[in-house]
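Our consortium's second objective concerns turning raw sequence data into structural hypotheses that experimental partners can test. To show how far this objective has progressed, the report includes one record in full. It was chosen at random from the queue rather than selected for favorable results. The single chain below, 388 residues long, was entered without modification.
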Amino acid sequence: MELDRARIRGAAGVARSAPQDTAALRELAEGLRLVAHYNIEQDTARSALLAALPGLDRQPVDVQRPLLTAAYTLYPQDAAPLLRDLLPLLSTPREFAIAAYTLLRTRQAADLALVRSQVMQRETSEPRMQALVQALFVAEGLPQAARPPLADLLAVRPGFPVVFSFQRPGRQQMGLALVRQADGRFVRRSDGGLFNIAQLALSSSGLPGTITLGNTPQGLFAIQGAGRAATNVWIGPTPYLHSKVPIEASVADFEQRPAGSTEPGWSIDRYRALLPASWRDYAPMQEAWLAGLAGRDEMLMHGSTIDPRYYQGASYFPGTPSDGCMVAMEYWDASGTMVHSDQLALLQAFTKGGQDRGYLVLVELDASPRPVSLAEVIDAVVQAEGRL
């Protein structure tokens, strides 16, 4: 940890003295990644990041993205005055969207108007722009469609096992995961109670789901078996469930047909047809589709070896953020031996019927300062099973 602190301090010092030097800004970007990951040295890096924002449009995109991400994640209020002049100069959709989302966080009428005027000058059919327009509508207070009946969603893709991940808007509280079997009934524990685990779908950046390394998007994913993260020390040795968004996974993968089947290409209608009829026009469920179009991938359901004490005091504690995945709780002793794993329990529940192919549905429930509870979804589970 002390080495990481020293790296952050060193990178911040160099960047403050040379705020437009590309090599210094790349090192600052690595330092800011450590700031977000370990929740340390925010004050140390603040002035260096703010000094880098003017003229950032002249830097390579691979420098723009992490610095704009840090502005959104760590210093949105401080960065906003600088981003007002920078926003019109950002030419790439992803970097423009990150800066725009940061301005939306101020909720100031002038910033909303600036974002709206700039978005209307862009190609609004681009997936990140489509998602940004929806976020702008929310920020402006426009009425949003009511969430369709949850019991309908719990009947999605009959004949296949499904993980349901219920999350809060903003992902600042722990979510909840249930598992439905292929026969439509939900997995029970040995005592007869519903199997459920805590699960956090918050990225370290907190950015929306269509942005690289943002939160896991809402929508339908295909689960294509399990795997192990051989080189990622933060995920650890517990097998993950390989969840994929459209485009990342083929139509055949989503429809659970043999690879190589003759098929038309992906379209929004093809994706919508996979959802229950009452949910096909519910815009938030199309975020996974837009994320796939935007090139997102490798959003897995996995465990964690990250020490939750880094996030002591956070509203989602003891959860640990990720790079855009869904993280189940795991506990390890000082020797590195597993003490308890919700991720392993989730894997076993999903494969209980002998299948390791199926679906994941991630959906946000109502905003609340509390973690998602079983009480919020139990009636929908009972209704869904009662229709069998």
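The partners drew two points from this record. The chain has a mean pLDDT of 94. The first helix runs from residue 2 to 17. Both points have been shared with the crystallography group to help prioritize constructs.
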